[in-house]
């Protein structure tokens, strides 16, 4: 038995699940417990498993227990009623396959960052670049803010929708959608028969939507350059899985922030319903950026609630503290480059962290010559942020196979490269226009 445990040993969470499998198998065979409720019998090392797998821990234990129960049943049927004291060789082999499927996302070659960072800071940075170039491009056609444009595109592509459906589809809270709808009603780009009736485009709105969509299609072709139809379809399928998980995270965190009794994290891949609508969230696949924005919105909203609850920091403050804590002391210019924000916004946030005693500065006079490190309290919160991020990312990426993760990252890299080129072109247009 000891040899079997050593043969498949690995990270702490993995070793604990192996111990659970072998102990449970022994307990069933010796009659110490039945198969209806195996948890009280030889309970697993929950703290170790939760530390390694986060929200996926309970699901992982259930999967391992189901495997052990099924394996013992198969062994008894094969031997005519009994089962050997030591597990057969295929027991460890199949258990390893199961544990490989539970393995948290591995490191990616993407700029030396973990694969999960794409869902967090790198996704934000991509969207920041796309939004900056979009504001310059669309302003030459029609001066609307981003959310107004997204609603026009959504109604054009999907037809009439109620505000709750729009809110769910774009991942923005209902208050923001209501303000946007009010603006669009005032300039007569949308209309509705009654207050609670679905919104639809007016003739004027349809004309403007078509104009803007020509530009949107051009920008989409640029962003998806070197990405084939099959690759794009697989990318959308992964985004849809990630979106379902991000909605579950948001609903869970919203319950926690409202002081409700915490529940177990939902089962990965469970059916997802939009807020109060009873319908699945509609995902706009007409352009590559739209579902990424929706994914980012839901993940950011849950992240803001998580970090506020655990650290008292805003989502952006937590991000900046995390970047400072990754490789301290960090030079000012390196920090600004990583968070991809202007010096003013970065400076205000860093100053706020310094005033709260979470970050300290060293170096010559002037902020731009400084180097920054977390204080003792900042380091503590950095570890809290890291743990929470790992748990959130592990749950978010849980339904994906390793192949899906790798393909998603490869496609994401292409989009990011194209977004940089697109932004530089728009900046060049702006400079020419102001000469």
Describe the structure.
This protein has 435 residues and is mainly alpha-helical. It has 3 domains: 2-102, no CATH class; 129-227, Winged helix-like DNA-binding domain superfamily/Winged helix DNA-binding domain (Arc Repressor Mutant, subunit A, Orthogonal Bundle); 229-403, Arc Repressor Mutant, subunit A (Orthogonal Bundle). The protein is 65% helix and 4% strand. The chain has helices at 2-7, 12-29, 46-53, 57-79, 89-102, 121-139, 146-158, 163-170, 174-186, 203-223, 229-257, 289-311, 315-326, 332-339, 343-355, 376-396, 402-433, and strands at 190-191, 200-201, 330-331, 359-363, 370-374. A 3-stranded antiparallel β-sheet has the order 3-5-4. Keywords: DNA-binding, Transcription, Transcription regulation. It comes from Alteraurantiacibacter buctensis.
Mean pLDDT: 79
CATH architecture of the largest domain: Orthogonal Bundle
Number of distinct beta strands: 5
- Shape annotation: globular
- The CATH topology of the largest domain is Arc Repressor Mutant, subunit A
Q: Quick one: CATH superfamily of the largest domain?
A: Winged helix-like DNA-binding domain superfamily/Winged helix DNA-binding domain
Pfam family, one: MarR_2
Domain HTH marR-type: 137-232, 306-405
Region (Disordered): 258-278
InterPro entries: HTH_MarR-typ, WH-like_DNA-bd_sf, WH_DNA-bd_sf
């Amino acid at each position: 038995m000891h040899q079997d445990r050593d043969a498949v040993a690995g990270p702490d969470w993995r070793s604990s699940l192996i111990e659970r499998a072998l102990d449970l198998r022994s307990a069933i065979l010796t009659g110490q417990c039945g198969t209806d409720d195996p948890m009280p019998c030889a309970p697993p090392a929950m703290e170790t498993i939760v530390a390694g797998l986060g929200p996926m821990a309970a699901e992982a234990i259930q999967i391992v227990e189901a495997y052990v129960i099924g394996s013992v049943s198969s062994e008894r049927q094969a031997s005519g009623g009994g089962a050997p004291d030591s597990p057969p060789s295929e027991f460890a082999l199949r258990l390893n396959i199961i544990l490989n499927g539970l393995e948290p996302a591995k490191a990616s070659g993407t700029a030396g960052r973990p694969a999960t960072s794409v869902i967090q800071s790198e996704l934000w940075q991509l969207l920041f670049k796309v939004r900056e170039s979009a504001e310059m491009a669309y302003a030459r056609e029609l001066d609307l803010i981003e959310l107004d444009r997204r609603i026009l595109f959504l109604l054009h592509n999907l037809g009439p929708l109620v505000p709750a459906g729009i809110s769910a589809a774009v991942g923005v809270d209902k208050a923001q959608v209501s303000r946007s709808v009010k603006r669009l009603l005032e300039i007569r780009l949308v209309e509705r028969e009654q207050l609670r009736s679905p919104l639809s485009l007016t003739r004027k709105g349809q004309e403007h939507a078509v104009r803007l969509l020509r530009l949107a299609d051009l920008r989409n072709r640029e962003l998806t350059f070197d990405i084939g139809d099959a690759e794009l379809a697989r990318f959308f399928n992964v985004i849809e899985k990630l979106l379902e998980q991000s909605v579950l995270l948001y609903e869970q965190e919203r319950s926690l922030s409202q002081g409700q009794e915490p529940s177990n994290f939902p089962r990965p891949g469970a059916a997802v319903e939009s807020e109060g609508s009873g319908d699945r969230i509609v995902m706009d696949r007409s352009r590559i950026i739209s579902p990424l924005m929706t994914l980012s919105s839901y993940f950011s909203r849950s992240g803001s609630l998580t970090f506020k609850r655990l650290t008292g920091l805003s989502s952006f403050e937590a991000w900046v503290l995390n970047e400072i804590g990754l490789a301290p002391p960090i030079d000012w210019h390196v920090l600004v480059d990583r968070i991809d924000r202007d010096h003013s916004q970065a400076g205000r946030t860093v100053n706020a962290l310094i005033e709260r005693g979470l970050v300290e500065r060293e170096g010559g006079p002037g902020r731009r010559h400084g180097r920054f490190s977390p204080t003792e309290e900042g380091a503590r919160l950095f570890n809290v942020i890291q743990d929470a991020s790992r748990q959130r990312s592990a749950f978010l990426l849980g339904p994906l196979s390793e192949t899906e993760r790798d393909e998603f990252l490869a496609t994401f890299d292409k989009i990011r490269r194209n977004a940089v080129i697109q932004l530089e072109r728009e900046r060049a247009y702006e400079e020419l226009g102001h000469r």
